[in-house]
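HUMAN: Spend a minute on the protein record below and explain its fold to me.
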Amino acid sequence: MNLTGQLLIAPPTMRGNFWHKSVIFVTENHHRGSMGILLNRNSKNTLKDFSKQVGIECDVPGYLYVGGPVNTKAVTILHSAEWRCQNTMEINNMFSLSSQNDIIQRLAMGDSPKYWRLFIGLCAWSPDQLEYEVKGKHPYTHENSWLLATPNYHNVFELDSIDQWTHSIECSSTEFVQKLFD
């Protein structure tokens, strides 16, 4: 089961922890483990304020997002695949992930992808951990298994917070029912 490029959606039963109502974009999934970006956790820090904190003047609208609890000083940009920098990893034909010291400068100069969101931090899983969580294998349970959905630009970049979570659950449900009839 390769989960790269999929959305993980916290089920409604996952309560009382960091992952409650989370939507995560899986950026890597292989024998060494898995990584992803939490999409719907707005830091409330505007891009303008964040850029000032790092000494760059950037008047781009939007917010910085908390990508996860790991490597919380790392700045990455999840974006549409038509844009690249020196450190871009293509996830699939629609999405790429980039991290480079001059990303904020490039955004300030108008050099940006069509669709994008900027993050600090990321999510990480040890080998097989994510697959066990998705399948509800011991020590994890089916009640708290991640839901899966196929991402598109709308549900990755145009929605936020609870709306992104709700829409992603709807997408997961629709895809599940479609698979039953295929």
About this structure: The two ends are 19 Å apart (CA to CA). The first helix runs from residue 47 to 53. Helices lie at 47-53, 103-108, 129-135, 153-158, 161-181. The chain has one domain: 7-181.
